[in-house]
Amino acid sequence: MTLARKYKLIVADDHKMFLDGLLSIIANESDFEIVMTANSGQNVIKYLDNCEGKDVDLVVTDINMPDVTGIELNKHIKSKFPNIRTLVVSMRHDSKTIHRLTEDQVDGYVPKNAEKGELILAIETILKGEKYFSESIKKAYMDSMFNKEKDVITSLTKREKEVLKLIAEEHTTQEIADKLFLSKHTIEGYRKNLISKLEVRNLAGLTKYAIQLGLLD
Predict the structure, then answer these.
(1) Hey, which end of the chain has fewer CB within 10 Å, N or C?
(2) pTM of the shown model
(3) Do 132 and 87 touch, CB atoms closer than 8 A?
């Protein structure tokens, strides 16, 4: 695949052997130029802040690094230099990490044991303005979300499901209280607990969850 121009990359990993391996793979591609290597996220932040993010197209980073992690580095880049794209290369596949990175607009995520061809494909895809997540990363995330949803469903009481259904049907707090013969204060407590338990921010989030759980007719 031929890209439109020569792209400038930063590569960060605190394991020298893996860093050298990444560099050798990327160096063989004529479309890429490595402008900096780093063994910590803090060094990358200093570099980007000094050059104001200019002349850097992509940062390839590990997660577990001293001083500043890859998660924190990605968040910093996306908040200060949104035009710079980010690719995480890590052995961590837990859903919490993947979710946090996607929430912070990471552009791609591949495992460290990915084939050379997939790593190059990920970089090229991201530099074209698209997202790239390895199949193993997507599967780990989806499996975890499915198991989490099952756990959440199991944890909801019959009363909580009733309240969630009525909220999703756009009943007011007082109307729900009247229907269930409970006080308004009690319903407000259920609402707060549901928002916390389902990890949503507002009533719209509760409604979305009620639909996912099939509580609405």
Answers:
(1) C
(2) 0.68
(3) yes
